[in-house]
Design a protein that fits this description.
alpha+beta, single chain, 6-stranded antiparallel beta sheet, cytoplasm, globular, Thiol Ester Dehydrase, Chain A, 2 helices
Length: 153
């Protein structure tokens, strides 16, 4: 069992994503602006499972990256970092290596560390390194870059 630092309602207060494109169920560790650990439980009810692939349902690699970006965004867009999101755009994915699939019934644990967080009054740039696991098995790791704009609270 994982402790809950943020539940789904609190996550939805921070992220603009909603079902079927919200890929974070819980945040279990959070240091705003520094790092975060989030969880996605892969269910047979997830919308992408029906067609990818019916004979062996697996989470698409690109959606694993999206889930990791969303987890990182929780640490970046948290109110303690200062500012409310207006626009958040993925700008880069680098050095991703995949070691195993994520299947129905798996719990994907994503660990994200913010390596760069630059903010001006309106714009920001974020780089983070992340790793994703199922149990103690590494699923993937790599670097994600994001551009964001802020509006003053």
């Amino acid at each position: 069992a994982f402790p809950t630092a943020l539940g789904i309602e609190e996550i939805q207060e921070i992220l603009p994503h909603r079902y079927p494109f919200l890929f974070v169920d819980r945040v279990v560790e959070l240091v705003p602006g520094v790092g975060v650990v989030g969880i996605k439980h892969l269910s047979a009810n997830d919308s992408f499972i029906v067609g990818h692939f019916p004979q062996r349902p697996v989470m698409p690699a690109v959606l694993i990256i999206e889930a990791m970006a969303q987890v990182g965004a929780v640490a970046v867009l948290h109110p303690k970092v200062g500012g409310v999101r207006d626009t958040l755009l993925l700008t880069g994915v680098e050095d991703f290596k995949f070691k195993r699939g994520v299947f129905v019934g798996d719990t994907l644990v994503m660990r994200i560390h913010i390596t760069t967080l630059r903010k001006s009054s309106l714009l920001g740039m974020v780089r983070c390194r992340g790793e994703a696991y199922v149990g103690d098995q590494l699923v993937c790791k790599g670097q994600i870059s994001v551009a964001l704009s802020f509006k003053e609270e």
